[in-house]
Amino acid sequence: MTSVFTRRAIGALAMAATAALLAGGPAAAQDTIKFGVITDKTGSARFYAEPVAEGVILGAKVINEKGGVLGKKIELLIEDDQNIPDISASKARKLTDAGVLFIFTNTASPATLAQQTVTVETKTPHVTPANSADFLTTRLNNPYFWQMGPTASQQAATLLSFTKSRNYKRVALMSDNSELAQANAGSFRDTFKKAGLEIVADEVIQRGATTAVPQMQKVRAAKPDAIFQAAILGPEMVLFFKAYHELGMKMPIHGSYNLSIPGYLAIAKDLMEGVTFIDAYDPDKPEVKAFIEVYKKEFGKVPFSLPAYGYDSIHLAVDAIKRAGSFDREKIRAAMQATKGWVGVIGARGSSISFVDKRAGFDPQGAVVRVIEGNNHGKVVHSGAK
């Protein structure tokens, strides 16, 4: 799958940041703090991992240009885990051995969970800007880990809030067989059942399939009021949309925030008109407008949500360090956990991130629903889960 931005762009930005840090020689290098970034440059998650990493790198550059944090500049150590959990854990170990103060993880939730086995042991502050799996803060009791983006259950609740007036009774759920898609589908399933909805079709497209017609025929026969899309894999998602049109289906489609990735618009060109999807990015929000200007100055193009997740994550980490007034990991952990009402780029207008009494900090009312119009991510049509 083609990445949503060129590796050359992120590589140039990373090299520029490194050059700026090293320009002063060994003395300058001593005046840095190390942050680790685990991304996927070659595997199945690269189309969303790389944009998040881009946002982290851009954020580091902006912060360094403003003087850094507590008198020190940020040095980024970037590792490629190929979205493979075992490799991801080894990369986390490499970064903690290198003395990083924070780890930002951008690949799929299973890989992020594997990294936590290292960060909980080494007591290394660890944040995922955009991972959505609800299990990330529940399977391991890791007080050094925080999740910033909307969880799958929050996404499902927001979609149900948006569709409440349509009075759905019977719905279909579509996913693929990747571990992350199955985790998302599970969260959607639980949310729908709690809301009293009947799931009349629950279909899975296998990785590597060449058609989704058999699954969509079952969905069509079940006559749901709407289809909820929890799939992750790009080619398989295209098969879903193609089969939907080939079979002449008309019921509305509501997607998870994976549909906020522009790469889907390219590979499923003109197949998603009118589809609504979850996002955490409102182009009319003042903080988003400011981010757009910074991004356009750097890249000469308008950004979308994923780089903003990365941009927010490093700014929140720096905010915690400043509140801690120290580079001591325990003080930073306490400051991160005390985060309350932090406003960044991501989230609906009026929403904020808080970690008090929890480690999944996205505002329950912070997700928005947008509509695909003219093969573009269109206007916000709803916000919040109420």
Write a concise keyword list for the protein shown above.
2 domains, five-stranded parallel β-sheet, 13 helices, seven-stranded mixed β-sheet, Rossmann fold, 386 residues, alpha/beta, disordered N terminus
Task: Walk me through what this model shows.
- The chain is α/β, with parallel strands linked by helices and about 375 residues long.
- The chain folds into 2 domains: about 5-150 and about 285-335, Response regulator (Rossmann fold, 3-Layer(aba) Sandwich), CATH 3.40.50.2300; about 155-280 and about 370-385, Rossmann fold, CATH 3.40.50.2300.
- Helices cover about 45% and strands about 15% of the residues.
- The protein is built from 13 helices and 12 strands.
- It has helices at about 5-20, 25-30, 45-65, 85-95, 110-120, 150-165, 180-195, 215-220, 235-245, 260-265, 285-300, 305-325, 330-335, and strands at about 30-40, 75-80, 100-105, 125-130, 145, 170-175, 200-205, 225-230, 255, 275-280, 370-375, 375-385.
- A 7-stranded mixed β-sheet has the order 7-6-8-9-10-11-12. Strands 2-1-3-4-5 form a 5-stranded parallel β-sheet, sandwiched between helices.
- The chain is globular, with a radius of gyration of 20 Å.
- Residues about 1-10 and about 20-30 have low confidence and may be disordered.
